[in-house]
Input
Amino acid sequence: MQATNHQRIVELRQLKNFEAAYNGAFGIVAYATNRFLIDHMLRVGRILTQNDYEAMVIWGVLAHQGVAHLMPPGLLPSAILSERGRAVTDDSQIKPLRLRDITGITGIPRETAQRKLAQLVESHSVCKVSRGWVVSSARVEPELRDFTRESVMRLLAVADEIMAALRDADARASAGTSTRPPADAGELCASP
Output
Protein backbone atom coordinates (compact mmCIF):
# COMPACT_ATOMS: atom_id res chain seq x y z
CA MET A 1 0.00 0.00 0.00
CA GLN A 2 1.33 3.41 -0.91
CA ALA A 3 1.79 6.10 1.71
CA THR A 4 0.02 9.44 1.55
CA ASN A 5 1.98 12.71 1.43
CA HIS A 6 1.10 13.33 5.09
CA GLN A 7 2.45 9.89 6.02
CA ARG A 8 5.67 10.60 4.09
CA ILE A 9 6.17 13.90 5.92
CA VAL A 10 5.62 12.13 9.24
CA GLU A 11 8.13 9.45 8.18
CA LEU A 12 10.72 12.09 7.24
CA ARG A 13 10.29 13.74 10.63
CA GLN A 14 10.77 10.37 12.32
CA LEU A 15 14.25 9.99 10.88
CA LYS A 16 16.78 10.56 13.65
CA ASN A 17 19.17 12.42 11.35
CA PHE A 18 17.95 13.30 7.86
CA GLU A 19 21.39 14.48 6.70
CA ALA A 20 23.05 11.24 7.80
CA ALA A 21 20.23 9.22 6.21
CA TYR A 22 20.44 11.23 2.99
CA ASN A 23 24.22 10.91 2.82
CA GLY A 24 24.03 7.20 3.63
CA ALA A 25 21.41 6.58 0.92
CA PHE A 26 22.61 9.16 -1.60
CA GLY A 27 23.41 6.73 -4.41
CA ILE A 28 20.00 5.08 -4.31
CA VAL A 29 18.15 8.37 -3.77
CA ALA A 30 19.94 10.10 -6.65
CA TYR A 31 19.50 7.11 -8.96
CA ALA A 32 15.79 6.66 -8.20
CA THR A 33 15.06 10.38 -8.51
CA ASN A 34 16.91 10.80 -11.78
CA ARG A 35 15.51 7.55 -13.19
CA PHE A 36 12.01 8.91 -12.58
CA LEU A 37 12.78 12.35 -14.06
CA ILE A 38 14.42 10.97 -17.22
CA ASP A 39 11.68 8.37 -17.69
CA HIS A 40 9.05 11.08 -17.26
CA MET A 41 10.71 13.39 -19.79
CA LEU A 42 11.04 10.56 -22.30
CA ARG A 43 7.37 9.65 -21.88
CA VAL A 44 6.26 13.29 -22.22
CA GLY A 45 8.45 13.75 -25.28
CA ARG A 46 7.03 10.67 -26.99
CA ILE A 47 3.40 11.42 -26.22
CA LEU A 48 3.26 15.18 -26.56
CA THR A 49 5.92 16.43 -28.95
CA GLN A 50 7.33 13.48 -30.90
CA ASN A 51 10.60 13.83 -28.97
CA ASP A 52 11.00 17.56 -29.64
CA TYR A 53 12.34 18.55 -26.24
CA GLU A 54 12.35 22.31 -26.85
CA ALA A 55 8.67 22.10 -27.80
CA MET A 56 8.09 19.98 -24.69
CA VAL A 57 9.70 22.61 -22.46
CA ILE A 58 7.63 25.37 -24.07
CA TRP A 59 4.43 23.35 -23.64
CA GLY A 60 5.28 22.62 -20.00
CA VAL A 61 5.96 26.27 -19.24
CA LEU A 62 2.67 27.30 -20.87
CA ALA A 63 0.80 24.58 -18.97
CA HIS A 64 2.19 25.57 -15.59
CA GLN A 65 2.40 29.33 -15.91
CA GLY A 66 -1.08 29.52 -17.41
CA VAL A 67 -2.75 28.18 -14.28
CA ALA A 68 -0.21 28.97 -11.53
CA HIS A 69 -2.27 31.99 -10.40
CA LEU A 70 -5.20 29.64 -9.73
CA MET A 71 -3.22 27.23 -7.54
CA PRO A 72 -1.40 28.98 -4.70
CA PRO A 73 0.70 26.64 -2.54
CA GLY A 74 -0.92 25.10 0.51
CA LEU A 75 -4.56 25.27 -0.52
CA LEU A 76 -6.69 22.17 -0.19
CA PRO A 77 -8.11 20.78 -3.44
CA SER A 78 -11.65 21.50 -2.22
CA ALA A 79 -10.82 25.22 -2.12
CA ILE A 80 -9.84 25.50 -5.78
CA LEU A 81 -10.88 22.44 -7.78
CA SER A 82 -14.15 21.48 -9.42
CA GLU A 83 -15.76 18.05 -8.99
CA ARG A 84 -13.82 16.93 -12.07
CA GLY A 85 -10.55 17.94 -10.42
CA ARG A 86 -10.03 20.99 -12.62
CA ALA A 87 -9.02 24.47 -11.46
CA VAL A 88 -10.01 25.96 -14.79
CA THR A 89 -13.76 26.12 -15.30
CA ASP A 90 -13.44 27.95 -18.61
CA ASP A 91 -10.54 28.88 -20.88
CA SER A 92 -10.77 32.57 -19.94
CA GLN A 93 -9.11 31.68 -16.61
CA ILE A 94 -5.92 30.52 -18.33
CA LYS A 95 -3.24 33.21 -18.35
CA PRO A 96 -1.60 33.60 -21.78
CA LEU A 97 2.15 33.95 -22.06
CA ARG A 98 3.80 36.28 -24.54
CA LEU A 99 6.75 35.21 -26.64
CA ARG A 100 9.01 37.41 -24.48
CA ASP A 101 7.84 35.52 -21.36
CA ILE A 102 8.38 32.13 -22.98
CA THR A 103 11.91 32.94 -24.17
CA GLY A 104 12.80 34.54 -20.84
CA ILE A 105 11.65 31.55 -18.82
CA THR A 106 12.99 28.81 -21.10
CA GLY A 107 16.13 30.43 -22.49
CA ILE A 108 15.10 29.19 -25.93
CA PRO A 109 15.97 31.74 -28.65
CA ARG A 110 13.08 33.82 -30.00
CA GLU A 111 13.14 32.39 -33.54
CA THR A 112 13.27 28.82 -32.25
CA ALA A 113 10.46 29.47 -29.78
CA GLN A 114 8.30 30.96 -32.56
CA ARG A 115 8.91 27.89 -34.73
CA LYS A 116 8.13 25.51 -31.86
CA LEU A 117 4.96 27.43 -30.96
CA ALA A 118 3.80 27.16 -34.59
CA GLN A 119 4.35 23.38 -34.43
CA LEU A 120 2.45 23.16 -31.15
CA VAL A 121 -0.43 25.17 -32.63
CA GLU A 122 -0.48 22.87 -35.66
CA SER A 123 -0.67 19.79 -33.40
CA HIS A 124 -3.49 21.42 -31.40
CA SER A 125 -1.37 21.37 -28.24
CA VAL A 126 -1.47 25.16 -27.79
CA CYS A 127 -3.66 28.00 -29.03
CA LYS A 128 -2.69 31.52 -30.07
CA VAL A 129 -4.93 34.09 -28.35
CA SER A 130 -4.90 37.87 -28.41
CA ARG A 131 -2.41 38.25 -25.53
CA GLY A 132 -0.12 35.29 -26.28
CA TRP A 133 -0.29 31.50 -26.18
CA VAL A 134 -2.15 29.05 -23.93
CA VAL A 135 -2.31 25.27 -23.66
CA SER A 136 -5.22 23.81 -25.58
CA SER A 137 -7.78 22.50 -23.12
CA ALA A 138 -9.04 20.07 -25.77
CA ARG A 139 -5.70 18.23 -25.61
CA VAL A 140 -5.76 17.81 -21.83
CA GLU A 141 -8.67 15.37 -21.82
CA PRO A 142 -8.46 12.35 -21.80
CA GLU A 143 -4.95 11.70 -23.11
CA LEU A 144 -3.04 13.83 -20.60
CA ARG A 145 -5.31 12.85 -17.72
CA ASP A 146 -4.44 9.18 -18.31
CA PHE A 147 -0.75 10.03 -18.80
CA THR A 148 -0.71 12.00 -15.54
CA ARG A 149 -2.42 9.17 -13.63
CA GLU A 150 0.39 6.85 -14.72
CA SER A 151 2.99 9.51 -13.82
CA VAL A 152 1.54 9.92 -10.33
CA MET A 153 1.63 6.16 -9.76
CA ARG A 154 5.28 6.05 -10.85
CA LEU A 155 6.17 9.08 -8.71
CA LEU A 156 4.57 7.58 -5.60
CA ALA A 157 6.43 4.30 -6.19
CA VAL A 158 9.71 6.23 -6.39
CA ALA A 159 8.81 8.15 -3.23
CA ASP A 160 8.27 4.83 -1.43
CA GLU A 161 11.61 3.52 -2.75
CA ILE A 162 13.43 6.65 -1.58
CA MET A 163 11.73 6.59 1.82
CA ALA A 164 12.75 2.96 2.35
CA ALA A 165 16.37 3.80 1.47
CA LEU A 166 16.34 6.78 3.87
CA ARG A 167 14.86 4.69 6.70
CA ASP A 168 17.49 1.99 6.17
CA ALA A 169 20.36 4.50 6.07
CA ASP A 170 18.96 6.29 9.15
CA ALA A 171 18.83 3.00 11.05
CA ARG A 172 22.41 2.18 10.03
CA ALA A 173 23.62 5.66 11.03
CA SER A 174 21.84 5.41 14.39
CA ALA A 175 23.40 1.99 15.02
CA GLY A 176 26.83 3.29 14.07
CA THR A 177 27.05 0.93 11.12
CA SER A 178 29.17 2.18 8.26
CA THR A 179 27.29 3.45 5.26
CA ARG A 180 30.40 3.73 3.09
CA PRO A 181 31.41 1.18 0.46
CA PRO A 182 34.46 -0.96 1.23
CA ALA A 183 37.81 0.77 0.63
CA ASP A 184 38.62 -1.59 -2.25
CA ALA A 185 35.39 -0.83 -4.14
CA GLY A 186 37.37 1.01 -6.82
CA GLU A 187 36.27 3.75 -9.15
CA LEU A 188 34.85 3.37 -12.64
CA CYS A 189 36.83 6.38 -13.88
CA ALA A 190 40.11 6.36 -12.01
CA SER A 191 42.14 9.56 -11.83
CA PRO A 192 45.57 9.40 -13.48
